[in-house]
Amino acid sequence: MKYLKNAWYAAAWADELSQRPLARMICETPIVLFHDTERRPVALFDACPHRFAPLSLGRVQGDRIACGYHGLEFGRDGRCIKNPHGNGATPAALSVRSFPVVERCGMVWIWMGRSEMADSKHLPEHLKAFDQPGFVWSHGNLNVAAPYEMVVDNLLDLSHVEYLHPFLGSAGNSKGRTMRVEHDGNLLICRTEATDTPVTPLFRLMREGDESVDDENGDLRGETHWLAPANIYLDTTTTRVGAPLNTAISVPTYHLLTPATADSTHYFWAAGWNRLTDRDDVAQMLRTGIVNAFENEDEPMIRACRSRMHSNDLLENRPALLPIDEASVLARRILGRLIDVESKENAVLPDLG
Amino acid sequence: MKYLKNAWYAAAWADELSQRPLARMICETPIVLFHDTERRPVALFDACPHRFAPLSLGRVQGDRIACGYHGLEFGRDGRCIKNPHGNGATPAALSVRSFPVVERCGMVWIWMGRSEMADSKHLPEHLKAFDQPGFVWSHGNLNVAAPYEMVVDNLLDLSHVEYLHPFLGSAGNSKGRTMRVEHDGNLLICRTEATDTPVTPLFRLMREGDESVDDENGDLRGETHWLAPANIYLDTTTTRVGAPLNTAISVPTYHLLTPATADSTHYFWAAGWNRLTDRDDVAQMLRTGIVNAFENEDEPMIRACRSRMHSNDLLENRPALLPIDEASVLARRILGRLIDVESKENAVLPDLG
Amino acid sequence: MKYLKNAWYAAAWADELSQRPLARMICETPIVLFHDTERRPVALFDACPHRFAPLSLGRVQGDRIACGYHGLEFGRDGRCIKNPHGNGATPAALSVRSFPVVERCGMVWIWMGRSEMADSKHLPEHLKAFDQPGFVWSHGNLNVAAPYEMVVDNLLDLSHVEYLHPFLGSAGNSKGRTMRVEHDGNLLICRTEATDTPVTPLFRLMREGDESVDDENGDLRGETHWLAPANIYLDTTTTRVGAPLNTAISVPTYHLLTPATADSTHYFWAAGWNRLTDRDDVAQMLRTGIVNAFENEDEPMIRACRSRMHSNDLLENRPALLPIDEASVLARRILGRLIDVESKENAVLPDLG
ipTM > 0.95? Predict the structure, then answer.
C-alpha cells in the first residue's frame, strides 16, 4: 500500500524503549527501536543485511546492536562496525537503513521518508496540551486489526459515540448536534456542539462535588484536530447549560495512529482530565473505560465494517455518505493528495525503498 | 464461485430466529435474519450502506433493525426509515437489499436471486414428511468446512456408510446392494436395496421388543430425493427379510445444504423415527449418533478429500469414477446445467449482484 | 516449487512405521507410509483415486491398505486389488502411484522421481557412521516451519553456534577459526578448525574423568558432509591442544532434511558420542540439549529470517554475503544446477507428475 513517507509517525511511547530491542512494523517496514547509552532513541531497519535475521532478536550492547544469528554489530547510523568472522571486513554493503527519530513529550516519532527532509518543526503542534496546568494524564497503546484510515473515520465522526459507547456517550446527543469543519494545509479542525443535552456517564462521574454541572443536561463540545497522516487531538468538554468554557470539565485525548500494515494500526492514546486529579480510583476508572471503548467497542466494529468491504479504500466501496462524514471524507481527500504529490516527487528522485 | 441464485435455500431453523439479529453467510453473501413483531422472518443484506457495519451487530427494534455504529434504522424492505443525524434525510441510496424469505415446516427459506421470481411453489415438496403420523423428529444444524457439492456427493452414495459409520452401517451391506437412479427436471431419486443383509446397530437398537425384525439379517432400503441445488430427503427403512414395507422401522432424514462460501456449508438436518417414539433415551441416542456421524466421521473425511484436490470442482480433479457415483455425478451435471442457463439469462438482464 | 526429484529423501525413521498408516508430505506430495507383513516399507500417493480420500485415514490390512471412505483396497504397487462395490471391477485407472522406498541404517528413504532410476547405490554413503564401534546414538525428528535450503544454510555455517547456541558453542570460537571447502559432484565437504580455543559446555561435560581434555582450551574441529539435495553429516571433535585426533571426544550428528512444502521441512536428526556411553543421564542431557537447540534456537531464528524475505530464494533477496557463507552458497549453486539439469531432461520425457 502507499503511505505518506515524509511525515512523522508515532513509533513508541518513550517508556517502551530501553536497552532491550523493541520490534515494531511501521508502514509495512520492520523497525527495531532501542535507547542508546544516553537514552537517545535509535531506529533501524529490523533485518541484518547478511541473512535477514531480525536485529530485534539480538542484543543491544551500549550504542550498538548485535545480530543474534552471527554476531555482526551495527551502530546508531546503521553501519556495521564489527564483523567477528574471518578478516573482520565491514564493507559499506554491510549496513542497515537508519531512520530519523525524535522524542517529544514522551513519544518517540519516526520519519519514514527521506532523512534529509526530516525536521522536528513538522511534529504535531498540539502535543503541547501535555503541558497544560491542572491536568493529569494517562497513556497506552494497542494494536487495531483495521486500516488506519478507518480508525481516523471513526474518530472524525463523533456521532457514533451515542450508539457504540454507553459509558462515553448519552442517548440523545445526536439530536441538535452541530458540526463545523475547517482546514488549513495538512491540518483539519472539526468542532461539534450539542447544547442543553444529556451529559454522559463519564462526565456525571467526574463532576462529583462540583456544582457547575449539577444538572441532568449540559453543553457538550468537542474539538478535533487531525494532522496528516493520522495524528488526532480531541478535546471534549462539558459545562452547565450556558456556562462559560473556562468552567468546563475537560477531557483532552490524543489518538496517534500509525499504520503497521495495510490492515493493522498502532493506536497510541493519551487522555488528560482536570477534575478529581488526585484520585487514583478515577484515574483507574478512566483508563479502564477508555481502553474498553477502544478494544471492545471501536475495534470490533471497525474490523466488522472492514470484513464487509472488498478493499480497504472506503470510497472504492461506494458508501452512502452522510453529512456527518464531512470531516472524515475531507481528511481522506487531503491525505490522498499528499500521497499523490509525494509519489510524483519520488518518481524524479532515486528511490530509497 | 457461481451459485444457483434463483432457488430456495435453507437459511435457518425458525427456532433460531428471534428479535436478536442472526448473521449468516449464504452463497458468499452476508445476511442478517430476524423475526419481526409478528414472527415473520426478515432477511437483509448484512452491511449498513453508510459505513458497511454489519447490521447483525445492531439491535432489532420492533419491525426494524438499527445499525450499531451510527443508529440508522432499516425496515423489512431494506429501506432506511430513520436517520438520527443532521436533517434526518433518508435518500433512496440509504437502503440495503432485502431477500424473499418464507417459513415452511419449521425452516426459514431464502431466495438469493431475483425477487420477482421467488415463488413458494418451488419449495422442496418432500418437506411434507414432517406431517407423517406416528413419527417424532429431531433437528439441528452444523457448519461443515467443505464445499456443499462434496457433502451432496457423500449423501448420494450410501455405500460409504459401511466404511465410515460403524453405528449407522454394517459390514457386508455393500455386497449385493442394488441402486436405481431416476430423475425428472431438478429432482433426482436414488433407490438402494440390500436384501437379506446384516441389520445395523441403529436398527437393532430400535427393534427393541419388536418381533418383525428379530433376525440378524433384514431387508434394507434407502430412498434419496435430491432437489437442486442441494436439498436432500433420505428415507431409510429396515424390514424382516421378505416382509412388506409397511412393517418397516423407518428413519427418514433431511439434509438441507446451503453453501456459505465456496468451501463451507451450512448443514441443516432433521431425523424422524417410528419406533420407541415415547422414549427420551432413544431420542437422545439417535441425536447423538447422527451428530457424531456428521461431525466426527463425514466432515473430517470430506475435508480430507478436499485437501487432496487442487480445486473444489471434483471432475476437474479427474477422479476414477465408479458405478456407485452414478447419482452424484448426475446431480452435479443437472446443477451445472441449471447454473449455466441462469448465467446466460442474467447476461441479458441487469445484474442484481 | 521445484525440487530435485531423482534423489533419495529421508522419509521416516523405520521405528515410525508400523501397520498403522503414517501420513507425510514430501516435496509437496502427500505420501502414506506403512510396513507390510514382512516389515518392508511401503510408500503410496496418499489419495484414493476414486474420491481423493487420504489413504492414511484408512486401515492397513496385511500387505494392502483399505480406503476409509468406500473400502477400496490397494497393494504395495499401488494397484487396486479389491473393489467391494457392484461388479467389483478394478480397472487400471483405479491405482495410486507407488514410490520406491528402501530401509538403510534405521532410516526409510524415498525416491520422488522416476522409479526406474531409483538405485540404492545413490543412498548417502556417510550413513555408515552408525556402525562405528565405541559410539551410542540417539535420534528423532521434528518439523521446521522454514524452507529446507535455509536449514542447510544454518548447518553449513557453524559460525552461528557461538551466538545462537550457548550450550553447544563457546564465546570466542569465531576468532581464528579456519574453514576449507571442497566438493566433488553432489558432495560438498566443509572443514572448520579452531585451535587453542575455549571448549564448549557440552564437551566440558563429556570429558568428565578424562585427562586428555582437562584444560580450559582445546582444539575444535568440525567436518560437514552435504550431499544434495539436503542430507548432512557433521562430525565435531575436541582434543587437548595439540593432541592427535584419535584421542578426541567426538559427537557425530546427522541432519537429514526433507522438504515438506516450500516453507516447511522434515528434520530427521541423529547424534552419536564416544564418551560416558553407559550413562543414561548423559544420553538424556544430550538429547534434550540437541532438541532444544533445534526447536528453540535454530528454528525460531530461521523462521524469523524467512519473515524478512520477500521470497524463499535467499539470493533473490540480495544478502550481503560473507566469507563464512562459502559452503552454503556453493551448496545452493550445486543444487540449483542439478534441478535445472533434471528439468531439461524431464522436458523431453513424459511427465510422471
Answer: no
